Amino acid sequence: MPEGRLTELLIDDATWSAGSTARRHEWRLAINEILQEGRFTLPDGADARALLTLAPTRVLVDVHDAGGRALSQHALPLEQIRPLMTEYMETITEMSKLRLSTNSPRLEALDIAKRITHDEAGETVVTLLGPLKPDHGTARRFFTLLVTLLYDTTKLGAAHATAPRPR
Q1: Each residue of 1-56: pLDDT tens digit?
Q2: Of 73, 77, 48, which is closest to residue 146 (Cα–Cα)?
Q3: In whole angstroms, what is the distance from residue 48 CA to residue 50 CA?
Q4: Does 37 reside within a domain?
Q5: Is 164 part of any domain?
Q6: CA-CA distances (angstroms) from residue 100 to 95, 108, 154, 161?
Q7: DSSP string, the chain
Q8: How confident is the model at residue 155 (pLDDT cuts 50, 70, 90)?
Q9: Spatial separation of the C-alpha atoms in residues 77 and 163, rounded to whole Å
């Protein structure tokens, strides 16, 4: 199947309505990255729209073509992605407790751990989204969106930062 792109990515109304202004802004940023840079394999290379629905034990991803015809549905079990989210959030929480400095070995180690977890999570998302076959970067962005949907990261500056690199 040829490559396609998402032209719209929505979050279910209940989740969207329950989010604070800051969280909805964060979700918009994550969604825009997926829409602008995301790569998927879609039937006939069609442009598509997707809806994410949070359920108690999974995240549903419904994909439709521009005319509203269902292309695919995927259920991402939280039991498979929650351990990675927990590890990712624990690392971010530790990073947020440190003072940012270019000479912080602890911060650099945590940043590496965060990237490793993010990479592993991306591989898991690729597997869970199966036929959509997102590339690795897209899967990482998708994981970031899932994290922000399930955890309030708006007060953790380290959630979006990486350790400064020594020059």
Answers
A1: 567 788 999 999 999 999 999 999 999 999 999 999 988 887 666 788 999 999 99
A2: 77
A3: 7
A4: yes
A5: no
A6: 8, 10, 18, 10
A7: --EE-EEEEEE-HHHHHHS-HHHHHHHHHHHHHHHHH--EE-GGG--EEEEEEE-SSEEEEEEEETTS-EEEEEEEEHHHHHHHHHHHHHHHHHHHHSPP-TT-HHHHHHHHHHHHHHHHHHHHHHHHTGGG---HHHHHHHHHHHHHHHS--TT-GGGS--PPPP-
A8: confident
A9: 31
Determine, yes or no, domain membership for 167: no
Closest CA to 149 of 54, 62, 8: 54
Q: Is residue 166 assigned to a domain? A: no
Asked if 14 contacts 57 with a C-beta cutoff of 8 angstroms, the reply is: no
**Helical packing angle, 136-150 and 21-37, nearest 10°:** 170
Tell me if 110 sits within 8 A of 162, measured CB to CB. no
Pick the more confident residue, 40 or 85: 85
Name the token pair of 51.
């809806």
Taking phi over 0 as left and psi of -120 to 50 as alpha, with beta for the rest, 130 belongs to: left
Q: Is the separation of the CB atoms in 138 and 78 below 8 Å?
A: no
Domain count, the chain: 1
- Map tokens 């840079």 to a residue: 37
Per the structure, the complete domain to which residue 121 belongs is given by 3-159
Tokens 């490559």 belong to 3
